[in-house]
Design a protein that fits this description.
The chain is of the alpha/beta class. It contains 16 helices and 19 strands. It folds into two domains: 274 residues, Rossmann fold (3-Layer(aba) Sandwich); 185 residues, Four-carbon acid sugar kinase, nucleotide binding domain (Molybdenum Cofactor Biosythetic Enzyme, Chain A, 3-Layer(aba) Sandwich), CATH 3.40.980. The mean pLDDT is 93.
Length: 475
């Protein structure tokens, strides 16, 4: 057992950093960060920022017009195959640059992905860097890899990425269920070796720059000095344990960029908050959540994720919320072309009828259908997600819920963009400390309906029930 307290004893204490100092460094450049989010859960650490589910030039024009220091773009590439993910990243960067040129706004780019290392890496940063080089003529010097997400129990120490076990211990992330993901599996918790593994040896571990806690807590100038050798998209992996570490890193990155370094970022959720100097917002209370729809009594909770914590959270919600109706969408039926349509019709009817009486919990059956072929696993996941989206969209058209909570990355992305037809929204803040994001749609048929994005792999067993309790009138 690796104990966090003992592991950190060999490193200097964290250094308090005022987020206003970071914000001032961002304001001085006038730069806006464009965050290409491979699923919508990256917004859970920020507040009052625009989010897009489409990335045409006019969408970016709207987002840049808000004056926000960062813009989230829901690319949903974690659900796509590599070729599709690459094309989507390149298109989004190209359109962002066009909109920024017309608005006279300088941009930086962030590739936001999973704090448990699942996703298309290094493909996505490579796609961004290639597009920037083609459009601007400027090469990328370094790709800064910061997966840490302390609020969700993911930290990096000594170049090794861990997840907290809740009892003061640390588990190397490669020893968790996340590393056995059907599509994005990996074998190393040591980030430099992870880079070597995922890049197929293109970047040997010894060529990766490592910023450990000595460097991160040693001052901005020292961080910038260590980044000086970066060239040709050199990977840079970073230790982070606390929010102050992220802010200290932000100052070091700002200094490196002031010296002329061109950097891209591959990060977990809280990086952007720290990089723009945003305070950690307290969780929204029930009184701060928009009132929602005026039709049915109930809200809709949609659960698609199959990781263990989600299944436990689903059980806790249904055990505690006695007034909620549970509707199961059988995965086997929606994967059968001869049964799928009849199953969808039946499920929509059940959901609409139950919303008139109270909240509804719609979940896919807990049997995980998967394949040894990563592409086939993605196809299965996308088919199931499309069925969930169809139920949500037909329900919205018939009886708009008072609120919607979507649990799981692919689920919450597809529900937002296609089920609720959200194109533009504002991220209002977290529903729990540092995790679980509430969006307010500003257009489309779901305008004004509170929408909660809940990652599959965050929170304790009671977290889903706690969020629904804040939103519900019948809990």
């Amino acid at each position: 057992m690796i104990m966090e307290k003992e592991l950190l004893a060999e490193y200097p204490a964290e250094v308090p950093v005022d987020p206003r100092e970071v914000a001032a460094s961002v304001a001085a450049t006038g730069r806006v960060l464009v965050v290409l989010d491979d699923d919508p859960t990256g917004t859970q650490s920020v507040s009052d920022l625009p989010v897009l589910t489409r990335w045409d030039v006019e969408d970016f024009a709207w987002a840049l017009g808000t004056g926000a220091p960062a813009v989230y773009v829901l690319t949903n590439t974690r659900s796509l195959d590599p070729a599709e993910a690459q094309a989507r990243n390149r298109e989004a960067v190209d359109h962002a640059l066009t909109a920024a040129r017309e608005a006279g706004v300088p941009l930086g780019f962030v590739s936001r992905s999973d704090s448990t290392l699942r996703g298309h890496f290094p493909l996505e940063p490579d796609a961004i860097a290639a597009t920037l080089a083609e459009r601007t003529g400027e090469p990328t010097d370094g790709v800064v890899v910061v997966p840490a997400f302390p609020e969700a129990g993911r930290i990096t120490v000594g170049g090794v990425h861990y997840t907290r076990d809740g009892q003061g211990g640390l588990v190397p992330v490669a020893e968790t269920e996340f590393a056995r993901d059907a599509t994005f599996h990996y074998s190393s918790s040591h980030l430099a070796r992870y880079v070597e593994e995922k890049s197929g040896g293109r970047w040997p571990a010894e060529d990766v720059i490592v910023l450990d806690l000595h460097a991160v807590r040693g001052g901005a100038a020292g961080i910038a000095d260590l980044l000086e050798p970066a060239a040709g998209s050199t990977p840079v992996v970073v230790d982070v344990v606390t929010e102050n570490d992220l802010r200290a890193l932000a100052l070091g990155l700002a200094e490196a960029e002031r010296r002329g370094k061109k950097l891209l970022y591959r990060v977990g959720p809280p990086f952007v908050r720290a990089r723009i100097g945003q305070e950690q917002r307290a969780p929204l209370t029930g009184d701060e959540v928009p009132a929602g729809g005026t039709g049915p009594v109930g809200g809709l909770v949609v659960v698609g994720s199959h990781v263990g914590v989600t299944t436990r959270q689903l059980k806790a919600l249904t055990d505690r919320h006695s007034h909620a109706t549970t509707v199961e969408l059988p995965v086997e039926a929606v994967l059968d072309p001869d049964r799928a349509e009849a199953q969808l019709t039946e499920t929509v009817g059940a959901v609409v009828a139950a919303l008139a009486e109270g909240d509804v919990v719609l979940h896919t059956s807990r049997l995980l259908v998967r394949s040894e072929d990563p592409s086939e696993s993605l196809r299965i996941a996308r088919t199931v997600s499309a069925a969930v989206v169809a139920v949500v969209n037909r329900t919205l058209r018939t009886a708009p819920p008072r609120f919607v909570v979507a649990k799981g990355g692919i689920t919450s992305s597809d529900v937002a963009a296609h089920g609720l037809e959200i194109r533009h929204a504002m991220v209002r803040g977290p529903m729990l400390p540092g995790i679980v994001s509430l969006w307010e749609p500003v257009d489309g048929p779901a305008r004004g309906i509170p929408y909660v994005v809940f990652a599959g792999n965050v929170g304790d067993d009671g977290s889903l029930a706690e969020v629904v309790r804040k939103l519900s009138t019948t809990f």
